[in-house]
Each structure stands twice: as C-alpha cells, then as structure tokens.
Amino acid sequence: MRIGKLVLGCLGMAVVLLAALVRLATPAAAATLVEVTNFGANPSNLRMHLYVPDSVASRPAVLVAVHYCTGSGPAFHSGTEFARLADQHGFVVIYPSATRSGNCFDVYTREALRRDGGSDPVGIRSMVGYVQQRYGADPDRIFVTGASSGAMMTNVLLGNYPDVFRAGAAFMGVPFGCFATTPPSTWNSECANGQVVRTPQQWGDLVRAAYPGYTGPRPRMQVWHGTQDTTLRYPNFGEQLKQWTNVHGVSQTPVSTDTPQANWTRTRYGATGTTPPVEGISLQGVGHNLPSGGMAAMALAFFGLTG
C-alpha cells in the first residue's frame, strides 16, 4: 500500500512539474487591439482602439493611424503593417474610428479646420493626450499617418496641432483645406478630381490660418500618391507638396531624387537624408491603395522610428 501511494505521489509531482514546465515554455500572450472609452473631449463621438506591444519602450513614441472612408480602426489595424512594426520598435499605435455615415473623417467643416474648433481633430488630440498620460509617451515623438480620408486627416492634424505632431505620412490624400465645403459636405468632387489648384502661398496660408499666431516649428511631411488613383486623383500629390514646402519655407525644387523601389520616384525638399522637411513618393501605375509593400516601413524611417 505504501509503495502504491508513493508511486501515485511521484506521478502527481511529475504532473505538477510538467505543467509548470509547459507554463514556462508557453510564450506570453501576444498584444491585442483594445478599445478605450472616456479618453477625453470627443465632440464627434469617435471610437478609439489602442495597440500597445508587449515590448513597449520606455517613454514610447506614438503613431496615430487613421483609416479610409468605409473603414474602421480595427480594419486599418488588420490591413496594414503598423502594429507589426510597433512590435519591432516598441511604439504605441492609436487607431481612431469615424462613426458618421460612410465612416469618413471630418476634413471639410470650419470646425475641423481650425485648432480646437471641434469635430474629429479634437477627439484625436484627446486620444493622444490619453496615451501621453497613461504610458508616459515622449512628446517629441508623436506622429500621424493615414490613407485616403485618413491621409486628409493627417494633413489636417499637422495644420491644427503643429505643436503636438512631429511628422506625418499621407497616403493618397489631398492638401489641408482642399475638401472644405460650404455648406458642409462629406465629399468635394472638385478637390477629389484634382481640379483645385492654388499657389504655394495660398496653400500655406490655409495651414497657417488653422493656428493663428503660431511661430514654432512645423511638422515634417511625407506624401505618397499613385499616378493611376481615380478616387483622389494624382494632381493632389503636387498640390500637397506645394503646400508643405511653402509651410516649411523651402524650395519646390527637390534637393535629391531617387528610386527606392521599381516605379517609385522619391523627391526630397529642404534637406537630404531620411528625415527632410518634406518628402514625396510618386508610385507609377498604382491606384488608390492602402500602404503596403514596404511603404509603412519607409514612413517609419521618415519619422526616425527605425534608426
């Protein structure tokens, strides 16, 4: 009987040890996308999803990643590489979601096109503030990127909050103020078709009017556009470059031109190197696409997050 109990006891101990070894061998649960509520002022009832990598850095950088019309924060999370890159580099990603009909962001009302005027930009600014307070984020490394409607919002956020964002990357968007309509309308066909053409000074004045009296540094801007974009047509690429070179007070003549990939033409304005004031990447034969095929990594290099 004693031998039987001893055997059973040893077997039980073996099971306990095996279970402990399995727990040690099993990796920690991977980071997941989490919805955050009550993050601050949110006049247009945006939703906020947050991705914090398991290996988040001390005083992490923050990337706001803004979706396209008909999309959502979770869809942009799953359809782009920004979360995977956050795992590699330890930054936090905020994914806002528009909630109005069509899920487009407000880049067209008077409220949206001025600092603290209301609507979506205020809600996104609150999301950034929440992350800064909750995770001790580095205020000198706050960035924004987006595609289509999100690219338009990237332009708007850089104009409204130049003291918050250090740089932006706009994929297939339009200049700040180009979609403005009176009365407000979610779509501006003239701008979408590339028919709104202004001087660099006029475009720059629209940005400066969003935050009157501001004299501090301006966020750097990276602009991406496909030559075959039929949703937001290719002339908007050149208009954005006119706008942001004027905002930065640099020449419209590029200081360097290269081809980082086949059919990609990259121009840099105001400085060489990976972090110039303004950078444009023209994608020959590409339509209205999400950032893919190394585009997200190039945006992070422009931000200075991969060095």
How would you portray this structure in words?
34% of the residues lie in helices and 17% in strands. It is an alpha/beta fold. The chain has a single domain (30-303), classed as Rossmann fold, CATH 3.40.50.1820. It starts with a helix and ends with a helix.
Element-level helix/strand string:
HEEEHHEHEHEHHEHEEEH
Strand order of the largest sheet: 1-2-4-3-5-6-7-10-9-8
Q: Into which percent range does the helicity of residues fall?
A: 25-40%
Instruction: Tell me the major beta sheet.
Output: 10 strands, mixed
Give the helices and strands, then pairings.
Blueprint: H1 2-25, E1 33-36, E2 47-51, E3 62-66, H2 73-79, H3 82-89, E4 92-97, H4 119-135, E5 142-147, H5 149-160, E6 167-171, H6 189-192, H7 200-209, E7 220-226, H8 235-248, E8 256-258, E9 264-269, E10 278-283, H9 295-303
Parallel strand pairs: 3-4, 3-5, 5-6, 6-7, 7-10
Antiparallel strand pairs: 1-2, 2-4, 8-9, 9-10
Helix pairs in contact: 7-8
